[in-house]
Write a structure and sequence with these properties.
Blueprint lengths: L1 E5 L4 H11 L6 E6 L10 E5 L18 E4 L10 H22 L4 E5 L11 H17 L2 E4 L2 E3 L8 H11 L8 E3 H13 L6 E3 H10 L3
Parallel strand pairs: 1-2, 1-4, 2-3, 4-5, 5-6, 6-9, 7-8
Helix pairs in contact: 1-5, 2-3, 5-6
This protein binds NADP nicotinamide-adenine-dinucleotide phosphate.
C-alpha cells in the first residue's frame, strides 16, 4: 500500500506514522508536513509544504495513493473560530478534493474525535461534524472518533495535555475511552483491508478493528 499522511509531526500523526512504517502491508509512506520530520525510514518520503489549501506543488505525493490518513488538526482552545474552521474543515476538504482527482478510489481517513456532533453546543464539534459529512459525500471517507489517544504529546499541544497524559493511560481498561495511537493507525489500515467505507467509528469499534489486523 502507498499511504499519504498529514499531521505526522503531531502527537497522533507521529503514532499513526509509526504504525504505518511497521506494517508489512505498507510499502511507502508519503508525509506532507510544514516542517521536516525527525523520523527516517527507507519507506518514508517527506514533502515539506506551506499552503494546505493548495497542493499543486506536491501533486506527485497524491498520485498512486491507496489511502490518505488525515491526522492534521488543532485544539479549538489554541486558535480563533475562523482559524479552527480553516484547519479542521477547509484543509481536509482541499486535500480530499485533490486526492480524488489524482488517486480516484483511494481511501480517505479523517480524525474528528469523540463528541463530534452536528447538534452539539460546542462550535468545534459542529465544525468536525460538517467536515465528516462533506468528506463522506465527496469520497466515501471514513471518519474516526477516538476518545483519549495514548501517544507522546507533541510540543504544539497545550501544556495541560502533557500533564494529563499519565491520567489518560489509566483509561486503558475502558474500550470506549482509550485507544493507543498505534491502534488507531492499524485500524485505519485494516479498514482498507476490509473495504470499510463511508463509516463513522467510535472509540470501541476502533479498538475492535485494530485487534483484527494481522500485519
Ligand atoms: N490527542 C488526542 O487525544 C486526540 C483525541 C481525539 C481527537 N484528536 C484529534 O486528532 C488531531 C491531531 O491532534 P494531535 O493531538 O496530534 O495534535 P498536535 O500534536 O498539535 O498535532 C497537530 C498536527 O497538525 C499540524 N497542524 C496544526 N495546525 C496546522 C496548520 N495551521 N498548518 C499545517 N499543519 C498544521 C501540526 O503541524 P506542526 O507540527 O507543524 O505544528 C501537527 O502535525 C486533531 O484534529 C485532534 O482534534 C486528538
Amino acid at each position: 500500500m502507498i499511504i499519504l499522511i498529514f499531521g505526522a509531526t503531531g502527537s497522533v500523526g507521529a503514532s499513526v506514522l509509526d504504525a504505518c512504517l511497521n506494517a508489512s502491508i505498507v510499502g511507502e509512506v508519503r508525509a506532507v508536513t510544514r516542517r521536516p520530520l525527525m523520523e527516517t525510514s527507507p519507506k518514508l518520503r517527506t514533502y515539506v509544504h506551506k499552503d494546505f489549501l493548495n497542493y499543486a506543488t506536491v501533486e506527485e505525493a497524491f498520485r498512486g495513493v491507496d489511502a490518505c490518513l488525515f491526522c492534521l488538526g488543532i485544539s479549538a482552545m489554541q486558535v480563533s473560530q475562523e482559524e479552527y474552521r480553516t484547519i479542521s474543515y477547509s484543509y481536509p476538504l482541499a486535500a480530499a478534493n485533490f486526492l480524488k482527482a489524482k488517486s480516484p478510489g483511494a481511501f480517505f481517513h479523517y480524525i474528528s474525535g469523540a463528541g463530534t456532533s452536528a447538534n452539539s453546543r460546542q462550535e468545534w464539534a459542529r465544525v468536525k461534524a460538517q467536515t465528516e459529512h462533506d468528506l463522506i459525500e465527496l469520497l466515501d471517507a471514513d471518519c474516526w472518533r477516538p476518545a483519549f489517544i495514548d501517544a507522546r504529546p507533541s510540543a504544539s499541544l497545550p501544556k495541560l495535555y502533557a500533564l494529563l497524559q499519565p491520567v489518560g493511560k489509566l483509561l486503558k481498561p475502558f474500550p470506549s475511552l482509550y485507544v493507543h495511537g498505534h491502534d488507531l493507525g492499524r485500524a485505519m489500515l485494516q479498514a482498507g483491508v476490509e473495504n470499510l467505507r463511508c463509516r463513522i467509528f467510535e472509540n470501541s469499534e476502533i479498538r475492535h478493528i485494530a485487534a483484527r489486523a494481522n500485519f
